[in-house]
Structure formats: structure tokens, C-alpha cells
Design brief:
7 strands; Thiol Ester Dehydrase, Chain A; about 20% helix; about 150 residues; 7-stranded antiparallel beta sheet
Length: about 150
Amino acid sequence: MESRMATEDDLRQAGWKQRSLQGFIQSAGPLWTRREGAIWQYGLLTGPSHVNPAGVVHGGVLATLMDHALSAIAWEGVGRRACVTVQLNTVFLAPVLPGAFLKAEGQIVRTTRTLVFAQGEIAVDGEIVLTGTAVLKVSAKAFSPP
């Protein structure tokens, strides 16, 4: 999908904050976050390191962002208890060119005592490029990211 090249300055001016997190998401990112009313949004500015051999952003990058966003939404929704993904389903709707900014958001559909069911989407310049659903297992312990 065609998109205008976003810059880090563009993102900051639009209210996005770059996050420095431990672990894999930092390798995939860096991750950007923004709150729009009650909705948290998660973003990733793609570049040459995110492409597959065909020259478009690798599907694993999009799936990683969707997994992170839905996990963070679940974590917040169950009182900041750790949630681990037990199932993630994705539907890829359009290719993404490097330089595009991926914006993910989602919501909890249902919770039980031990599971969270969530759904979300990733968009580039307002066009949805991926939809996803997840089932996450809730940990018994509260968790605060480092």
C-alpha cells in the first residue's frame, strides 16, 4: 500500500511517544504509543530492516505489533496482570511499503476468570492492512513491565 513517509518528528507532533521496552518488541520497534480518549494506540515506524525478500514489510512485523497491542490492552483491562497469548489469528489485507507508520488499536471483547478475548486492527494512513483476534491467558500475579 502506498503511504507518505512519516518521520519521528511527525509522530511526536501528532502526540505519539516513543517507548523503550525490554525484550523482543524493542528489537522489532521501537514502539510508539498514544492515547486518544479512552483508546490506547500502538505504532511502529517501518524501515528497510522490516522488509521481506519481496520488498514489502514482513507479515511477522505486523503480527508482532498486533500481538503486542492486544496483549497490552488485555494487561490494562485485567488490572495490570500479565497476559500471555495462547492464540493469535491475523488476516492480512494489504501489503505495506517500508517507511509506512503502522497504527494498531483494539479492544477486549470478553473476559473470563482466566482468559481475555480481544480484537484489533492495524492501519496505515487510515487504510486497514491487518485485522486480528487473540485469546490471552491471565496470570495470577500482577505484573509491571521493567
